[in-house]
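Justification of resources, computational component.

The compute hours requested in this renewal are based largely on the per-chain cost of generating structure records like the one below. Each record pairs the submitted sequence with a full structure-token output. That output is archived, and it is also reused by downstream analysis tasks.
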Amino acid sequence: MFNHYLKEFLKIFTLFTALIFLFTAANLSAQIPLDKDEEPEEDIYKQDINRDGNVNIVDVVALLLLGRDGPESPVADYTDDGEYGIWDATALLLHIINGELSLPDSFPITGRVVENDQGVAGVLMVCEGGYEWLQTTTNSDGYYRFDGLNDSKYKVKPILKSYYYTFEPSEFEAVVNGDSVTLPDMQATYAAFTLSGRVVEGDLALEGVSINVRGEGVDTTVVTDSQGMYHVDSLFNAPYVIMPTLENYTFDPLSLSVHMLGDSLTQDIQAIPIGATPPDLHVIGGMVLCSVQPLGNVQVLLIGDKEAGTVTDAGGLYSFAVPDGNYTVIVVPIPLFQVFSPSTHSVELQGQDILNLNFFGFGAGGSE
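The structure output for this chain reads:
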């Protein structure tokens, strides 16, 4: 923890020092011009960090803070001493003052999403890499395009629409190096999967169990046949919750969350007779949301004395009805929200409901 605060202090101190030094350099630039006998190289690297169409002092400070911590970081070692620091920032500022910088060339990444050689419209595509996180949607012919990309390595992948399709490959890696990049076609397959399974009491099939399946595109109930079998067709590549019910029976698990993950799935359920009086149940629940809105169809798991799973409704709400015991609630990351805070809630249920166990999502790959 101390190291964390020390790093933050050093970062703030460095920024403060940089601002003083840079503005001082700006005021003295008329008296201390660059040596005109040493012409700057034409290929000096520039980076418009805030993407305002200019290279200016805001970008200089951003470069100073970002440093050179990886091969994809800005190359700005103007003093050629193997490091990036205040002297490089000063040199960069003087180049700007003398009008010797222009924006680097940028290039597009293009591609197409197809199903049986026909373009798939409306697929949300994301391009991430360097300092970029861009998104676009395929047009009526399945084409997508990301403009204004500097030399770097990028990942291009579909999100959200993947509920309704599976993709091969699931993502592309693209390297922009002084030219535009055209990616191969991404093959889409419409999701139409089957969820099936068997409900048994011990080793015996249990007929007449109502199986409610709820999730993306479906909220239906089927009943097990004489072999204890159930099945639900035409499910998407998405999470679903299974909830079995039958008078005088409880089930292990009480409810179950599954994800089709690009294929049909078989899920068996164990039935346990409880007599005429079921155990007292209480609710564990809450909401999954981001800073502006609730998040629906997010998979939530319950582990502990009983295990269960569910998905959030359109209002971001989830709940579990379980007997007293010790439990942990876990929310499963989704493409747009890959980190949730907190990551889990642990509770002890004793005779009353426990609500407001909320999770907050962070987008674009999350935040540490």
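The helical segments are 2-28, 57-66, 86-97. The two ends are 14 Å apart (CA to CA).
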